[in-house]
Design brief:
It is a single chain. The protein is an alpha+beta fold. Helix content is 33%, strand content 32%. An eight-stranded mixed β-sheet has the order 1-2-3-4-5-6-8-7, sandwiched between helices.
């Protein structure tokens, strides 16, 4: 086995902390995710790929097919204070041979945006990736016009690797450039302290 392989392969797991739970995505989450997407009509955002009404079942099926194939691990995001499913996120582009994965397909109901939920999800996902799975690198990709996403990733302390020109289709048929970021295992301890500090500040407010 290569010295850069995962310590253990990514598999369905529940991650919890700070009033948020990430649970393995299942077909039965469909209606609750439809409700979450309706908060802000997220499918209308040009620079994200939130499923429109009637598309959620196929969205979940595709995510679970990726899980079965070994290159995705999707989650539903639950706000423990309300019990509501408020969004979704996943590991994707999982490459066991080099202990690499990416975090993406992330979206939350409008009421949960710019809250502690995203910070908590990133902390849980990064902690599991680096400390449990033994990832060597975690990556992100986002639309070149999704400036909010770029700023959020950069606030984590991730390194901007570059821009993939003419890289992927948007929902409207246009082709986007993709901005790529990464975080190495050696950089994780400092990023973890930063995320924990942000959450401490949130709870103090």
């Amino acid at each position: 086995m290569s010295s850069t392989s995962f310590r253990q392969l990514p598999s369905p797991v529940t991650l919890s902390g700070n009033g948020v739970s990430l649970v393995p995505l299942l077909p039965e989450h469909g209606q609750a995710l439809d409700n979450a997407a309706a908060d802000g009509k997220l499918w209308q955002l040009r620079v994200t790929s939130v499923p429109a009404p009637g598309e959620m079942a196929a969205y979940i099926d595709t995510a679970l097919a990726g899980q079965e194939a070994g290159h995705m691990l999707p989650f539903a995001v639950i706000d423990e204070n309300s019990g509501d499913v408020v969004g979704s996120t996943r590991y994707h582009d999982i490459v066991p041979a080099v202990a690499r994965l990416e975090i993406g397909y992330t979206w939350y109901a409008k009421r949960c945006q710019r809250s502690h939920i995203n910070t908590t999800c990133k902390l849980l996902l990064l902690r599991h990736a680096f400390d449990t799975l033994g990832a060597v690198v975690v990556g992100w990709r986002t639309d070149n016009f999704n400036f909010a996403s770029q700023k959020a990733i950069e606030r984590l302390g991730a390194h901007k690797d570059g821009v993939l020109r003419h890289h992927a289709l948007r929902r409207d048929g246009s082709v986007r450039d993709t901005v790529a970021y990464s975080l190495l295992a050696g950089e994780w301890p400092e990023v973890q302290k930063h995320l924990e500090y942000q959450l401490t500040r949130h709870h103090a407010d």
